Please model this.
Amino acid sequence: MKRNATIFFALLLSNFVLYAENDSLQIRKIFNQILSKGTCYSRLDYLSNQIGGRLSGSVEAERAVKFTFETLKKEGFDSVWLQPVMVPHWVRGAKEEAWFKDKNGKVVVSVCALGGSCATEKQGLFANVIEVNGLQEVGELGEKLRGKIVFYNRPMNPLFIKTFDAYSDAVDQRAMGAVAASKYGAVGVIVRSMGSNVDKNPHTGMMRLQNDLKQIPACAISTYDAELLSAALELDNSLKFYLKMNCETLPDVLSYNVLAQINGSEKPEEIILVGGHLDSWDNGDGAHDDGSGCVQSMEVLHTFKALGIKPKRSIRCVLFMNEENGARGGTAYANFAKENKEIHIAAIESDAGGFTPRNFCASTSEDKLRRLRGYAPLLQAYGIEEVLPSGGGVDIGPLKEQGTCLIGFGPDSQRYFDIHHTAVDTFDKVSKRELELGAGNISALVWLISEYGL
Amino acid sequence: MKRNATIFFALLLSNFVLYAENDSLQIRKIFNQILSKGTCYSRLDYLSNQIGGRLSGSVEAERAVKFTFETLKKEGFDSVWLQPVMVPHWVRGAKEEAWFKDKNGKVVVSVCALGGSCATEKQGLFANVIEVNGLQEVGELGEKLRGKIVFYNRPMNPLFIKTFDAYSDAVDQRAMGAVAASKYGAVGVIVRSMGSNVDKNPHTGMMRLQNDLKQIPACAISTYDAELLSAALELDNSLKFYLKMNCETLPDVLSYNVLAQINGSEKPEEIILVGGHLDSWDNGDGAHDDGSGCVQSMEVLHTFKALGIKPKRSIRCVLFMNEENGARGGTAYANFAKENKEIHIAAIESDAGGFTPRNFCASTSEDKLRRLRGYAPLLQAYGIEEVLPSGGGVDIGPLKEQGTCLIGFGPDSQRYFDIHHTAVDTFDKVSKRELELGAGNISALVWLISEYGL
Model:
C-alpha cells in the first residue's frame, strides 16, 4: 500500500512537471509568434498615424471603429460584430488662448480645456487668480473666490513610487475642481496638469459636472507654466489671467464597441474578455492611451489563430468606445452581457500604456487570486513579477457585479504621466518590443485561463 | 530553561523585525531625497546637452572630466582626485559616405565607421558585396571573398527576451568581422547595426584589430539600409557598393578617471566602489551610455552627504575613462588598487542605460550572492525584482582577480538597443523618474553593504 502511494505521488508529480513543462512550451510559442510575426506594432502605427486622436463622436473615432472592425473581420474569427452605443460628443473647437500680465508684460501660457468644460464667453475671460493647494482650501476660502479664477496647483507627489498612486492622489483637483469652485461663485478654473515632469505639455482629462451649478470654464495648464504663474502670483497677486476656450458639447452620437470572438471548444459559454478602449483624447494620437491596449487585445486573438490554438473557453476581444469621457461603452457592454445571460469568468483590460510588462492586478476572490498567482511563475521570464490584489479597468468595471474576475495589465508606470492625455502621446513613444511583450503576457494569461479556468 | 529560550528567540525576532524596519526607513529616506531633491537629472542634462558625445581623447571627454571633477569637488567629500591614464585617440573625421547602385539608380545608405577602423583610400572604396550570415560563413567562403566587401547581415534575434542576450549573440560580427574577412583578402566590411529596431540609425561600436593582418575599413549600416541592401543584392548580386570613411587613429592621449570618496567610520579600509564610464561614443550625447551611470554614481555620494549618513565602510565613486574603445581606465584603476593594496569588498557598475530598475546581477561566491539576495526584498517596492547570478561591468571587471564582489545594475533592457551607440542616444530618451529610481536602488544597496558588509 505504501509502495502504491509512493508510485501514485511520483506519477502525480511527474504529471505536474510535464504539465508545467507543456505550459512553458506553449507560452514560449506564443511569445515567439508575437516577437517575430506580431501585428500589434504596425496596427498601432495605423491607428496613431493614419487615424490619430479619436475622441468619442469624432470622425476619427468612427474611422477607428471601421479600421479595427474590418481588420478583425479579415482574420476570419468565429464572430466579429459591432455593439451600438450612444456617446457624448464634446468638441474642443479652435485652440485655446491663455496669458497673464506681469511687470515685464504678457506671458503666454500653454493650456487646454478639460473634457466636458463649457467655453468662455466670446471675448474670453479676464480675471484675478487665487492659487490653492486643493479642494479643501477652496472650501476654506469660500466666498473670497467670487469673481475669481481658481488655480489648483498641487503637483503629483514624486515620492509615490508607482505614478498611478501619485495620480490618484492629485486628480481630484481636475475631476472636482470646477464644481467645488463654482459653488462659491468662481468664474473659471485652471488646474496644474497631472504630469510627472515639469514641461510645456498640458494634460487634458475629464471633469465632473453638476446640473444644479453654473458651469464655469476649466482648463489644464502645463506644469512649467503652472510654476511660472505661481511665481508671478507671489510677486503680484493682483495679476489678471486671460483665458479663451471654444469647446462645446453637442448632442450625443451613435458609436460602437468593436467585438471579435473565438469560440471555446469545451466550454464555449465561459467567456474570457480581453480589451482596451478605442477612443482617446483629441490632442495626441492616443498611442499609449489606449491604442496600445486595443492592438494588444487584437493580438491575443490573432496569436491563437496563427498558432492554431483551439481554446477550451471562448476568447472575446472588446474594443470599448468612450472610456475617456463617459465610459458609455463599458456600461453598455455589461448591460448587454447581463441581458444575454453571458458568463464572463474573467475580463482583462490593458489601459495603462504599452510599456514594459511588470504585473497583473486582479479584483477577485482569494482563491481566484491564488490561482492567478500560481500562473505568475510561468510569466516571470517574460517580465511579470507578480499578481497584485485589486485592479481592473474602467471599461470592465461594470462587469464586477456579475462576479467576473477583473484583471488589469500592469506595465511599468514611470513614463506614463509624461505623456498621458497630452499632445505627446504619440506612436514614437511606444517601444515595439515593450508593446509585444505586453501582448505576449496578456495572450499567455488568457491561454492559461482558457485551459484551466479559474 | 524552555521559557528562557522562548524569551531569547522572541527578543531575537523582535530585534530582527526592528532592524529590518529601520533599514526600510533609511531606504525610504534615500528615495525621498533623490525623488524630491535629486541632482542626477540636471547633471545628466549638462553632460548630454552642454558637453555631448565624449569619445576618449576628445575635447569633450576632457570637458566631462573637468565638469564632474569640479562638481564632486564642490560637494566637499573626504577626497576627490584624478587618476591619470593614457587612452587611445581615434577620430571619425568627416562624415562617412555610402551608396550602392541598383537598376533604379544610386541608393544612399546610412553608415558609420566602427571604432578603431582605418579610413578608406581618399577616392573611397568601390567593390562588389557578398552578404553573409556570420563569421562561420566567412570561413566557408574563404578565397571567394578576395577583393570583395563582406556584408554581415545577421539580425539581433528578437526571440531573446532580454536584449543583452540578443546583443551577445550577434555582436561577434561587429567585433571580429573585419579580422575574419581580412584573412581572405576582403577589402572592406559592412556590418548590420546591433539594433532591436528597423530604422535609419547606424550603431557604431568597437571592432578588434589584429597586428599581423592588413586593416580594412569597417562600418555599421543602419538596419533599414541593411534590409535594402540585402534585397538589392538578391535582385543583382553584381552590384557595387561605394564607401568613403575618413577616420584615423592618432597617438595616445593623457586622460583621467575621476574619483571621489566618503571615508568609512568603522572600516575605512573596506571600499565599496560605485561607478560608470565617462567616455561615450561620438555620434550621440551618450545620455544612456553611460552618462546615466555616471550621474547615478555621483548621486550615491551626494545622497549620503545630503542625509548626513556616515557610512561604516568607505564609499568611492569612480567615473572611468575609455570603456568604449580600450577599457584603459578600468585596467589602470585595478592596477592602482593592487599597487596600493586596497580592499574592494564590492564594486557596482551602472552601464546598461538609465531605464527603469529591475535587478542587480552579481559575480561572486555563493554565500555573498545569498547575502545580496537577502537585501532584495528591501528594494522590491522600488522596482528590484531579484539579484541574478553573473554580472558586473567592463570597467570593474579587472577587479575580479582581487576577489571583489562585482555587481551590475540591471535596468529594463527593452529600449536599450534602440539607441545604443547611435545618434539618438540623447537626453530626451532618459526618463527623470527612471534615472532617479536607479540612483535610489544603487544608493540603497551601497548603504546596505556599507552597514552590514558582505
The first strand of chain A starts at residue 79 and ends at 91. Chain A has a mean pLDDT of 96.
